[in-house]
Amino acid sequence: MLSVLSYGRLVARAVIGGLSQTDSRDYSLVTASCGFGKDFRKGILKKGMCYGDDACFIARHRSADVLGVADGVGGWRDYGVDPSQFSGTLMKTCERLVKEGRFIPSNPVGVLTTSYYELLQNKVPLLGSSTACIVVLDRQRHRLHTANLGDSGFLVVRGGEVVHRSDEQQHYFNTPFQLSIAPPGAEGAVLSDSPDAADSSSFDVQLGDIILTATDGLFDNMPDYMILQELKKLKNSNYESIQQTARSIAEQAHVLAYDPNYMSPFAQFACDNGLNVRGGKPDDITVLLSIVAEYTD
């Protein structure tokens, strides 16, 4: 049995060690991506970091790790517009702003706002709409800052449980909040939300926390319990393991999306809104899977 004095020394060492780690170690995100365009049967990257009409980015600056996903609104295709152009350009602009240091880690809405207004002022005409979710890890403060507009989103898993998640933003069923650029003279006829309407959150993270950021193609086809089952396969924080798990999640969501007999979260949501719907929801799927790890330069 430990003496009271010995026990006190052990506790003191543990407390001092914990404070030292908290004060001295920077955190980082080890992130892998995987996805499927709904018109493809394999995970194929389109141009840049695009899966179908979805787009994403992963960027690092000296003070923070930043990542994001965007889901281009497919309805624009009916008007001869490639929906991936808007989402892809939005994410590429966010990535550039981060790499140039033109952002504040605690203000991910600012990244989204600056990027969107750059698109509005672009001399090259760009039309389209997109949801967006931005996640920023402040390395020194060990704090995650998020901004989510629409029905893409994120969840944070610790100890096998979801401890944080984004709130979905919908105007009405299957019509999420979105950033838009309309043709001249048609601005009032196109649904468009301000970047400031994005839902923001900030919270502390711990080493080993798992952060999953994805477009609605994942969340519409996989409930939390299925995602958590897949995340249990993640045994360490090396990139290969994270990539394998990200692919496993994306593949399962892709299979479920084409199952006509599956009662998907989207089908359940439709039923709750008075619609008789069953099956998965064929859609583009983008998954960014991250683990909070100790920063190594």
Automatic annotation (TrEMBL):
It catalyses: O-phospho-L-seryl-[protein] + H2O = L-seryl-[protein] + phosphate; O-phospho-L-threonyl-[protein] + H2O = L-threonyl-[protein] + phosphate. Keywords: Hydrolase, Magnesium, Manganese, Metal-binding, Protein phosphatase. Its EC number is 3.1.3.16. GO terms for molecular function: metal ion binding; protein serine/threonine phosphatase activity. GO terms for cellular component: mitochondrion. It comes from the Eukaryota. Its cofactor is Mn(2+); Mg(2+). It is an enzyme of class 3 (hydrolase). SMART domains: PP2C_SIG (SM00331), PP2Cc (SM00332). Residues 26-292 form the PPM-type phosphatase domain. Belongs to the PP2C family. This is Protein phosphatase. It comes from Labrus bergylta.
